[in-house]
Amino acid sequence: MTPDISKIRRDFPILDQKVNGKPLIYFDNAATSQRPTQVIERVDEFSLRTNANIHRATHYLANKTTEAFEESRETVRQFINAAEAAEVIFTHGTTESINLVAFSFGEAFVKAGDEIIVTEMEHHANIVPWQMMCERRGAILKVLPFNDNGELQIELLDNLITDKTRILAVAHVSNTLGTINPIREIILKAHLKNVPVLIDGAQGAPHFKIDVQALGCDFYAFSGHKIYGPTGIGALYGKRKWLDKMPPFMGGGEMIDSVTFAKTTYNKLPYKFEAGTPNYVGAIGFAAAIKYIQSQDNQTLAAYEHDLLTVATEKLKQIEGLRIYGEATLKAGVICFNIEGIHPFDLGTLLDQMGIAVRTGRMCADPVMDHYGVENMVRASFAFYNTFDEIEAFYKALIRLKTMF
Amino acid sequence: MTIDEIQQEIVEEFSGFEDWMDKYAYLIEIGNEMAPIDAKYKIESNLIRGCQSRVWLHQEFTDGRIIFEAESDALIVKGLVALLLRIYSGRTPHEILSSEPRFIDEIGLRQHLSPTRSNGLLAMVKQMKLYALAYEKISSKK
What we know:
Chain A is of the alpha/beta class. Chain A folds into 2 domains: 5-27 and 298-402, Aspartate Aminotransferase, domain 1 (Alpha-Beta Complex); 41-294, 3-Layer(aba) Sandwich (Aspartate Aminotransferase, domain 2), CATH 3.40.640. Chain A is built from 14 helices and 17 strands. In chain A, the strands form 5 sheets. A 7-stranded mixed β-sheet of chain A has the order 4-10-9-8-7-5-6, with helices on both faces. Chain A has a 4-stranded antiparallel β-sheet with strand order 13-14-17-16, with helices on one face. In chain A, helix 2 runs antiparallel to helix 10 and helix 3 packs across helix 10 (280-294). Chain A starts with a helix and ends with a helix. Chain B contains 6 helices and 3 strands, in the order ααβββαααα. Chain B is an alpha+beta fold. Chain B has one domain: Sufe protein. Chain: A (Alpha-Beta Complex). In chain B, 50% of the residues lie in helices and 14% in strands. Chain B has helices spanning 3-15, 20-33, 75-88, 93-97, 103-106, 121-141; strands spanning 47-49, 54-62, 65-72. In chain B, strand 1 (47-49) and strand 2 (54-62) form a beta hairpin. The radius of gyration of chain B is 15 Å and the shape is globular. In chain B, helix 1 packs antiparallel against helix 3, helix 2 packs across helix 3 and helix 3 (75-88) packs parallel to helix 6. The longest helix of chain B is centred in the C-terminal third of the chain and has 21 residues, at 121-141. Chain A binds chain B through residues 20, 342-346, 348-350, 353, 360-362, 375-376, 404-405, and chain B through 20-21, 24-25, 28, 51-54, 73-77, 112, 118-119.
C-alpha cells in the first residue's frame, strides 16, 4: 500500500517553503525531524491556557499541568511498552539519558578494574559519558569493532564480555552508517553473562516500534526531537531493579523525600532522577508527537521509508566516484557518502544553494571517520514525509554539482 | 593599489555573475589555481580548525610587511582564502588592522564569514589581525 505522503506533508507546514529560491528538500532528519502542526498546536494551546509548575501546588493550573505531565509519561510508557510509568524518566534528550546512567550506574556498580563495552560505531554521546565514568571509577573501556560494511562483529562479543564487564552500551541504529544493529542478539549474549545493556535509541525510536520488555534491554535512551517532537526533551527507560539501586544523578527540588542538614532522603521513582522543574512543556509536545506517530499506519510508513532508502542508495551508486559508508544488510534511512575529489563542506554549501539540506562533517562519530580514513562525510537522512521526487532532485543536483569540480 | 581598491576590483569581478553557480564555479577556479602552501608550513601549529573544513595559515614579517601563505582542504573555502590573501598579504600591520574584508558581504558570500559557519574563515581573518597587532607592537617598540 502506498501511503498518502502529500496528506502527511500538509501536517508539516515547514516543508512548504523555498530556500535560496528553490523548494526546500529536507534530508537532515537524523539530526532533527520536523514537527507536525498537531505537536506545535498542542504546545501552543498548553502555553496559552494551562502553564504552571508541576507537583507543587493545589491550584487549578498546577493540577492540570501535573496531570498533563504524568499523562505524557504514560504515553511514553505505552510507546515503548515499559512495565510501569515509574520506569520512564524525562530527560533533556538521549545525551542526558546516557549521562545519567553512566554516572548513577557507575556510582552504584562500577569499581576499579571493571570493564565497560561500547562499539566502534557509537555517537560521541554514547562514548564520552562512559569514558568519564571510567576515569572516575578507574574502569576500562572496551570497544566492539565493526566491519567495512558497517556491521558489528558480533562474533567477537563472547570474548569481549568477561566477568569484569559491568555494562554494555550500543546504538539501536548508527547515526552515521545507518546500520540496524542486532540488539536482541546482543542483549541475549550479554544477559547470559549477567551484563546489563543500554540501547542508544536516538536513531532507533524514529524508525521502529519499540518494545523494551520484548527486547529485554535494561536501559533505552531516546529523544523527542528526532521523533517529530520538540527539542530539549527525551526519555530514559530503565528497569526498576537497576534504577532503585542507583543514586540520583542531580540534586535539587522534586527529587527529595525529606531534607535536613544532617541527612536527605530521596524521592521514589521516577522523581528521584528528575531534579528541578522538568521540561513539562517539552514532555507534553513529546507525547503529542508520539500520538501523531501512533495515529499513522506505521507498517506502511516503515515500508515506505525503506523504499526511500533503497531508491536513494541505487541512485547514488550510479554516480561515478561516489562512495557510501555503511552498506549493512539491515539499514535505516541514513546514507553517509563522499564524492571523490569534492570536499563535503563544498558539497553541503552548494546543495544548500539548491535548497537541499544535508548534514556535513564528522557526524559526532570520530571513530567512524577514522575507520574509513576520512575527515568528513555528507549525510542524507530521510523521514516519512520525504518523497521519491526529492530523491530524484537530489540525484540530479549531485550530477550537476559534480561538473563544477 | 590599496586594500580598498583591490576589494573594489574583486567586487567588480563578481558583479558579472548572474547565476549563483557561476559565482561558486569562479571561487572553485580561484581555489584550484591557488599555489599550495609550502608543505613545511602545513603543520598543526599553523592549523586553524573549523569544525568542517581546515585552514592552514603561515606568515612572515619582512620589511614592515606581513606575507601570508594559506590553504584550505575545501575548495570554496580555499577560493575565499585566496581572495583574503589577495587583499591582506604583503600589507603593513596598520593597513591590515584598519581594514575589514567588506568585499565578502558585497559579493553576496557574507554567510561564509558568519560566526555560525564552522569553516575556519572567520578564525583566519581574526588570526591575520592578531599577527598584524603583534607585529605593530613589535615595530613600535623598535
